[in-house]
Amino acid sequence: MITLAQATPDAAPPAVVHDGQAMLATASNWVAEHGLGFATSLVTAVLVYLVGAWVAGLVRKVVVNSLNRRGTDQTVVTYIANIIHALILVLVIVTALGQLGIPTAQFAALIAAAGLAIGLALQGNLSNFASGFLLVFFRPFKRGDYLSAAGTEGTVEEIGIFTTTLHTLDNKKVVVPNSAITGGNITNFSANPQRAVIVPCTVAGTNAPDQVRTTLLDAAAGNPHLLADPAPVAVLTALGENKYTMELRAWCAPDQYWPAQFTLNEAAKKALDAAGVSGPLPAMRIVQS
Asked: Which of helix, strand or coil describes residue 100?
């Protein structure tokens, strides 16, 4: 005769079944005693986060509007508003966790320890943050300036907490780490109210310099992108064998540089051709047989 124990060899031992029932009973008792309180705390924590996030966004808008009314530069406005928004969100998250019964003091200590570890691991980002602070408050450039830095050129769209965004002439978006910008030379083409436009023209040595000078100045006359004061000049800058270089130099507002450069190049070429100014002859090499 086969007994029941022999027929079901994989049945759970009585001790295991008893432990499972005890755990289930403990869980049921906890839910009965603390379930309503935990659910209330969870809902409260969610509400605290949602309201806090809304308040953080509202404070950010108030700060932006207030600084804009005072005429503060947009670079500084964006930087300060983003930092304030991030700090408020951190406080909201800590408060929400406190509603769940998590000790905020211990949590703060945990954040400090984690911050130290993360800081050691992300030293580059901390350097970018510090560099962003320097860029905003020492202001070597601002939003809308055209600059050359960290191996790229473009118009500044935004100076962020960690990176600076540039738009190049061919409409590319370049994101540059702030530390790469502060770690090298920064050329700000928009810092001064005037920018020079230079058109070098190399001509044959047989052309009279006065004729070339007059022709180039006539080419610059009436260009709507150039400033009348200071007036354009044409100067002889280099002498070579059977040739010389005359530079047409004019000035424009920084935001008019590229239209001024392109139109002046074309006008100078047309004027020299119309005046019969010849270019330098190619170098000749005599080969003896």
From this structure: coil
Whole-angstrom Cα distance, residue 268 to residue 122? 54
Looking at domain 21-121, its CATH architecture is Orthogonal Bundle (1.10)
How many Å apart are CA 75 and CA 77, to the nearest integer?
Answer: 5
Each as own residue / partner, the long-range contacts of residues 96-103 (CB below 8 Å, 24 or more positions apart, any chain) are 96/45, 96/46, 96/48, 96/49, 96/52, 97/45, 99/41, 99/44, 99/45, 99/48, 100/41, 100/42, 100/45, 101/41
Q: Which helix (H) or strand (E) holds 90?
A: helix 74-99
Q: What is the DSSP string of 208-253?
A: -HHHHHHHHHHHHTT-TTS-SSSPPEEEEEEEETTEEEEEEEEEE-
> Right CATH number for 140-188 from 3.40.50.360, 3.10.310.10, 2.30.30.60, 3.40.50.880?
2.30.30.60
| Boundaries of every domain in the chain | 21-121, 140-188, 195-274
Integer-rounded Cα radius of gyration of the chain:
36
> Whole-model pTM?
0.60
- What is the second-level CATH architecture of the domain 195-274? 2-Layer Sandwich (3.30)
**How many Cβ atoms from other residues are within 10 Å of residue 64's Cβ?**
19
By CB atoms closer than 10 A (0-12, 13-18, 19+), residue 202 is middle
Q: Is the pLDDT of residue 30 over 70?
A: no
Write the CB contacts of 29 (distance below 8 Å, at least 6 apart in sequence). none
The lowest-confidence range among 55-69, 76-90, 102-116, 216-230 is 102-116
Residue linked to tokens 């009348």: 228
Query: Alpha-carbon distance 74 to 85, whole Å?
Result: 16
Amino acid at 170: D
Residue 107, pLDDT above cutoff 80: no
**Residues in contact with 126: Cβ distance below 8 Å, sequence separation at least 6, in sequence order:** 119
